[in-house]
Amino acid sequence: MKNISICILEILKEHSNEEHRLSQKQIREYLQSDYGLNCDRKAVHRNLEALLDLDFPIEYKEKKRTTAGRTTGETVEDSVLSDFYFVHDFTDSELRFLIDCLMFSKNIPASQGQELVAKLEKLSSKHFRSKNQHIHTMNVNAPENPELFLNIDLIDEALTKKKQVSFFYNRYGADKKLHPVKDKEGNPRITTVTPLQIVAANGRHYMIACPEGAMEVRHYRLDKITNMELTTNSGVNVRKLKGFEQGLQIPKHMAEHVYMHSGESERVNFRANRAIIDDVVDWFGGEASFTNTMGDTVDVWVRCNRSAFVCWALQYCRSVEVLSPLDVREEVASELRKAAEKYAMPTCVSVPSVS
Using one digit for the tens of pLDDT, what is the confidence trace for 101-113? Predict the structure, then answer.
C-alpha cells in the first residue's frame, strides 16, 4: 500500500506554492484523484503533522478556535492547520532566470537544452510549468555536440586530480559540421593540455588551459572539443607561467580577453564617445579607467589582449579612436583601410535562389 505521508508530500510539491495553498480537504481530494487513496480528515491531519515533525519545508497557517467539549460542555481551545504549501528550493523567478540562461546559451545542443529545461521545471509546482510553455523554444542554431557535458565532467575531474586531458579540437566546415584540426600528416591532431578553469564568455563555454610543451595560456571552446580523455600526466603549475606568478585571476583575465583570444595582454589607450561608456564598462568592467571626462569624449585606459582589442576597436570603429600603443593604432588603421578597399568599387553578385 502506498505510504500516505509520501503521497501528501508529492501532492504538495506538485500542486502548491506560496500563491497556491491547499486545504486539508483539497489534499484529501488529490489523494483520491492522483493515488486512489480514500483518507478521512484525521488521517490527513496525522500525516501532515508527521511531515512537519520531520522538518520538511512545508508552511501553513494556524488558526485558534474554541469549541464546546463533547463530554463536559466546557469551552475548549485548539488549533486548526490550513493553507499548506511546499517551499521549493528555487523561487519561480530564480528558475525562470536559470531557464533563460539556458535559452541564450550558444553552445548547449538544443536537445540537451530541452532536457535541462524539463528538469528545472520539475523543481517547482505545476503552476510554474503551466505559465511557461514557451520556454521549450531553444536556440535552433546551437551546435549539436553531444559530448559537451562529458567534456565538463572530465575537465572537472582533471582539475581535481591535477592531471592533463587530451582531445581533438575541431572547426566547422562549409557543411556546418565539426572536423578535427589535422597534423602535418593529415591525421586528426591530438591536443594535450593542463586545464586551469572553465569560464563562460559571450554565450560560450571555454576551457582556459596550458598546452603541453608551451608555457602559455590558451582558450578552447568546449563545444568544439571531441574525444576527450583524462591522462595520467601531471598538470603544469600555473604559477610557473609568465604573467601568472600570482595564479589565475579570473576577473582580471576575463576583462583582458574580451573575445577569448589567446596571447599576452598590454595596456591600451583609446578615445571613446560618451555614448558608449556603458559598452566600455560592459566589456572591460572595473579594469577600465577614464580620464578627460568633461567633453563629448572620454579617454580610456584598459589592459587587454592585443588581438581581441583590435577586433573590439573595429567593432566600435564609429565611436572609438585608438591612441596608443602606436603599433596597435596602425594595425587598426590598416584593417580599416583594407575593409574600405573592398567597398571602393561596386560589385555585382548574383544572389542564389532559396528553395
Answer: 777 666 677 777 7
